[in-house]
C-alpha cells in the first residue's frame, strides 16, 4: 500500500511536514516519544492540523492504548482517524485518560487552547521532541517553514572501482543567505549511519563538491553503496536542493551523470527502460523514510499493462536494495518500458544499465526515471491554443554528430490517465532551420515506438554537423489527449568507444510572453521565464572534458538570436574568462569547455571550476556531460539545472 502522506502539491509546492517527521535526526526522538506514549496508559489523541495519520504512517502508533481521537475542524467530526470516528475536541473534558497526545509541532499554543479541557493529572505530549536542534533551523519562528527543510537525497557509492560525485553551487547565498552550510548523513546499504558531518559552503555561486572517494578516506570507511542525505542549513530563495551526480570509475570506460533526486517521494515513476538482450537493468530502491518499506509495497509492471509484480521483501529504513528488473519482469525487453509503483516510499530513484559486449567487456551507465503524475487529466484546451501558443509544449533534445553518435528517442507516458500520446518529431539544424519532421501518430500507452534521428532525416545530413530534436503534440492525431506532461527517454550511443548515455525529461513552453498554467516556467518568481542561468560543472580530471549542448526552443517566434555569455568561474565564484555566442531561434550550440577556453584560462580557473551560462534575452534549455576521448573512453549526459 502507498504511504498516506502528502509530499508535493502543484499548487503549494513541496511539503515540509513529511520531511520533518522523516528527518534522520527525528527518528530516535520519535521512537522515544512512542515508548513514552505506550507506557503512559490510556491516551487521548488530538489532531488539530491533520498531522496524525502521516505521523502514524511513518512511525506507527501501534501499541499505544488510544482511548479516543479528537479533531478541531467540525468537518472532521465523525471522520475516521486511526480507525475511530473523530470526536469534537470539546468532548475531551471529563474523559478518563492518563495522557493527551497533540499531533503537532509548535504545540504550546494549541495546548493552551484546550488547557481547560485536559483531564486533571493527564500528561501532555506533542511532536515537539522531534524538532531539529535550533542551529539547524533557518526560520526559528515557524518550524515547518519550507526553508527549514531544504533537503534531498543522492545515490552514493564507493567501491569495486566505482565512485560518485555530487556537484552543485551555493545559489542560496545569491538569494541572500548569510552563512549557509551543509548537514550531511551517509547511509549504508542496510540503512545504517556510516558518517555524519557538516560542510562549509563557499561564497555566493561558489562550487560545492562532495566526492565519495574523499568521504570514504575522511571517515576510513569500507566500500559502500547507499545514499547521502543533504540538508542545506540557512537556505534562502530555494528550498530545492539541485545538483549533478557524476558516477565515475577507476578505468576510462565508466562515466555517467544524472540530475538531482527530486526530493518529494512519488506514488509512481516511469520511463524505466527494459533491458536489451545484452543488458541488465538495476533499479536502486532507496528508502527515504525511517520506517521499513513492507514486502509487496513496491512493484513493477510493463507500461500500459495492469499486471504488476511485487518486490517480495522488506527494505529497512534508509536502506538500499538493488532490484534487478529481470527478477520481476523476466520477459521485458527494450523498447518496452517499465512503470514503478513506488508508493511514496522513495524519492526519484537511479537505475543502472550494465551491458556486456561481444568481447566480454562490461560497461555501466546510470540515469533516472521521472515522476509519473497522478493528478493530471488530458486538457482539451491545449488543442485550441495553437493560434496563441504556437507549438506550445516542446520537448527538446540534442542530436549529436551523426558520424559518431546515434541519437535514439523513446516517448514515455508520464501520467496515470495518459492513454495516448499524439506526437510529431521535428529535426532542426544548429542554425534553426527545420530539416525534417515525422508524425508519430497517436501512440497507445503500451507502445514500443522507438526511433532514431537518422530515421527522420532519411539519408539527409545536418549542414552544421549537429542539431536538435523537438517532440511536440500532434493535435490532428488526438486533440483531446494532451496533458502538458510530455516526456521521453533519449539514448546516445558512441560508435567509437561503444559507450552509451541516456537522459529523460519533460516538455515546457518556451520563449513566449503569454502564460499558461505557470508556463513558460521560471526558476524564481512568476511565469514567464524568459532568461537563462544554467550551471555547467567542469571535468573532474585532466583527461575528462565537459561538453554542453544548448538549445533555443521557441513556442512562438522570439528574438532571432540569443546573446549568451559563457562565463568560466573559479570554485569560489570568481570570473576568469567569458565568451559570447549567439544561437539562432530554434537552433542549438554544441561546445566543450576545453575547446572554448584556452588551456591557461582553464588552468587559472582551477579544480572544481564551472561555467555559468547566462542570457537575459531568452530561455535556453541545456544538456551537460563529461567525455573522455579515445577508443575506450566514456561519456556522460543529462539535462542541466538552473537557479
Q: What does this entry look like structurally?
A:
By secondary structure, this protein is mainly β. 11% of the residues lie in helices and 38% in strands. The chain is globular, with a radius of gyration of 26 Å. Strands 7-4-3-8-9 form a five-stranded parallel beta sheet, covered by helices on one side. A five-stranded antiparallel beta sheet has the order 21-20-23-18-26, with no helix packed on it. Strands 30-29-32-27-35 form a five-stranded antiparallel beta sheet. It folds into three domains: 8-130, Rossmann fold (3-Layer(aba) Sandwich); 150-368; 380-640, no CATH class. α3 (52-59) links the parallel β3 and β4. It has ten helices and 44 strands. The mean pLDDT is 95.
Question: What keyword list fits this structure?
Answer:
mainly beta; Rossmann fold; 3 domains; 5-stranded antiparallel β-sheet; 643 residues; 5-stranded parallel β-sheet
Count of runs of 4 or more consecutive helical residues: 10
CA radius of gyration is: 26 Å
Give the CA-based shape. Answer: globular
Q: How would you classify the helix and strand content by structural class?
A: mainly beta
Largest sheet: 5 strands, parallel
Quickly count the domains.
3
- Give the % helix: 10-25%
Instruction: Outline the low-pLDDT stretches.
Output: none
Euclidean distance between termini CA atoms:
36 Å
Q: Number of DSSP strands?
A: 44
- Spatially, the strands of the biggest sheet line up as 7-4-3-8-9
Which strand-content bin applies to the residues?
35-45%
Amino acid at each position: 500500500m502507498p504511504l498516506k502522506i502528502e509530499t508535493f502539491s502543484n499548487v503549494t509546492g513541496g511539503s515540509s511536514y513529511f520531511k520533518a517527521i522523516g528527518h534522520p535526526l527525528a527518528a530516535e526522538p520519535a521512537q522515544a516519544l512512542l515508548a513514552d506514549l505506550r507506557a503512559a496508559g490510556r491516551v487521548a489523541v488530538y489532531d488539530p492540523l491533520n498531522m496524525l495519520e502521516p505521523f502514524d504512517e511513518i512511525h506507527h502508533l501501534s501499541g499505544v492504548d488510544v482511548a479516543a481521537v479528537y479533531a478541531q475542524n467540525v468537518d472532521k467530526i465523525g471522520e475516521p482517524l486511526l480507525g475511530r470516528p473523530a470526536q469534537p475536541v470539546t468532548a475531551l473534558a471529563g474523559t478518563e485518560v492518563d495522557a493527551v497526545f497533540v499531533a503537532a509541532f509548535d504545540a504550546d499554543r494549541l495546548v493552551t487552547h484546550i488547557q481547560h479541557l485536559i483531564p486533571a493529572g493527564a500528561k501532555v505530549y506533542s511532536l515537539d521532541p522531534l524538532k531539529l536542534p535550533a542551529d539547524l533551523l533557518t526560520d526559528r519562528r515557524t518550524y515547518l517553514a519550507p526553508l527549514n527543510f531544504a533537503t534531498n537525497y543522492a545515490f552514493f557509492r564507493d567501491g569495486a572501482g566505482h565512485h560518485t560525485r555530487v556537484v552543485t553551487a551555493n545559489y542560496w547565498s545569491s538569494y541572500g543567505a548569510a552563512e549557509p552550510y551543509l548537514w550531511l548523513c551517509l547511509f549504508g546499504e542496510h540503512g545504517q549511519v556510516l558518517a555524519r558531518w557538516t560542510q562549509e559552503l563557499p561564497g555566493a555561486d561558489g562550487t560545492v563538491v562532495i566526492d565519495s572517494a574523499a568521504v570514504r578516506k575522511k571517515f576510513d570507511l569500507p566500500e559502500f553503496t547507499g545514499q547521502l542525505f543533504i540538508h542545506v542549513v540557512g537556505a534562502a530563495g530555494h528550498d530545492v536542493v539541485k545538483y549533478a551526480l557524476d558516477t565515475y570509475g577507476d578505468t576510462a570506460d565508466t562515466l555517467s551523470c544524472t540530475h538531482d533526486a527530486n526530493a518529494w517521494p512519488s506514488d509512481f515513476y516511469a520511463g524505466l527502460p527494459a533491458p536489451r538482450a545484452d543488458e541488465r537493468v538495476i533499479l536502486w530502491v532507496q528508502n527515504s523514510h525511517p520506517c521499513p518499506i513492507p514486502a509487496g509495497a513496491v512493484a513493477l509492471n510493463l507500461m500500459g499493462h495492469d499486471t504488476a509484480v511485487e518486490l517480495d521483501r522488506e527494505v529497512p529504513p534508509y536502506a538500499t536494495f538493488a532490484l534487478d528488473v529481470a527478477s520481476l519482469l523476466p520477459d521485458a525487453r527494450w523498447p518496452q518500458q517499465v512503470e514503478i509503483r513506488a508508493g511514496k516510499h522513495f524519492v526519484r530513484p537511479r537505475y543502472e544499465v550494465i551491458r556486456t559486449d561481444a568481447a566480454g567487456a562490461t560497461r555501466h551507465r546510470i540515469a533516472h526515471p521521472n515522476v509519473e503524475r497522478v493528478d493530471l487529466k488530458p486538457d482539451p484546451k491545449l488543442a485550441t491554443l495553437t493560434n496563441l501558443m504556437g507549438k506550445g509544449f516542446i520537448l527538446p533534445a540534442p542530436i549529436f554528430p551523426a558520424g559518431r553518435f546515434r541519437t535514439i528517442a523513446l516517448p514515455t507516458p508520464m501520467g496515470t490517465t495518459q492513454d495516448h500520446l499524439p506526437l510529431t518529431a521535428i529535426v532542426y539544424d544548429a542554425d534553426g532551420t527545420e530539416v525534417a519532421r515525422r508524425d508519430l501518430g497517436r501512440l497507445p500507452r503500451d507502445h514500443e515506438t522507438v526511433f532514431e534521428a537518422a530515421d527522420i532525416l532519411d539519408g539527409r545530413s545536418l549542414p552544421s554537423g549537429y542539431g536538435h530534436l523537438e517532440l511536440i503534440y500532434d493535435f490532428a492525431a488526438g486533440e483531446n489527449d494532451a496533458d502538458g506532461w510530455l516526456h521521453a527517454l533519449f539514448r546516445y550511443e558512441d560508435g567509437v568507444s561503444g559507450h552509451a548515455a541516456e537522459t529523460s525529461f519533460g516538455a515546457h513552453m518556451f520563449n513566449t510572453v503569454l502564460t499558461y498554467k505557470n508556463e513558460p516556467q521560471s526558476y524564481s518568481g512568476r511565469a514567464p521565464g524568459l532568461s537563462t542561468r544554467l550551471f555547467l560543472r567542469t571535468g573532474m580530471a585532466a583527461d575528462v572534458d565537459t561538453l554542453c549542448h544548448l538549445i533555443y526552443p521557441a513556442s512562438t517566434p522570439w528574438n532571432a538570436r540569443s546573446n549568451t555569455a559563457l562565463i568560466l568561474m573559479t570554485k569560489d565564484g570568481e570570473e576568469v574568462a567569458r565568451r559570447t555566442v549567439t544561437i539562432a531561434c530554434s537552433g542549438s550550440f554544441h561546445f566543450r569547455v576545453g575547446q572554448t577556453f584556452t588551456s591557461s584560462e582553464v588552468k587559472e580557473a582551477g579544480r572544481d571550476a564551472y561555467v555559468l551560462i547566462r542570457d537575459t534575452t531568452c530561455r535556453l534549455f541545456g544538456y551537460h556531460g563529461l567525455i573522455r576521448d579515445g577508443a575506450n573512453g566514456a561519456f556522460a549526459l543529462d539535462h542541466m539545472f538552473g537557479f
